Amino acid sequence: MADLFQTSIEQFSKAHDDFIEAWNVAMYSGDTAGLEIMTNNYYVTFFNSHVERPEFFDRPEAIQGMRESVEALQGAKKRFEHRIIRQRDPNRFVVFYEMIIEKNGQELTRFFTIEDWEERNGRWLLNREVTEHI
Known about the structure:
6 strands; six-stranded mixed beta sheet; 2 helices; 31% helix; alpha+beta
C-alpha cells in the first residue's frame, strides 16, 4: 500500500509541475488553454486584504478573469514557493503554496493559495481554489 501511495504522490507532483509550467507558458504567450483544467463545478474564492468579504467565481467567471489577468500581466512571471502537497485519498490531493507575481524585476503581489485536485478519467482537474492576498 505504501508503494501505491508514493507512486500516486509522484504522479500527481508531476501533473502539478506541468500545471506550473502551463502558467509560465500563459504568462509569456497569453495562451491559457493549459490552465483551463477545472471540473464543471469548479469555483475559486478570493480574499483581498482591503475587502471585508471574499469574492466567489464559478468556472466560466474564473476562466474569463484568468484570461484578462494573463493578458494584463503578459511578460510577468509567477513563482510558486513553499509548495506542500497532501493526499486526501488515491484520487484527490490538496496543494498549498505561496504565489509571487513579478514583472521587470519588481514584485507586484503575493498570494497564499490552496488548491483541491481530483483525478477523473485519467486527468487531474481542479475542484476549487482558495486564494488570499498577502
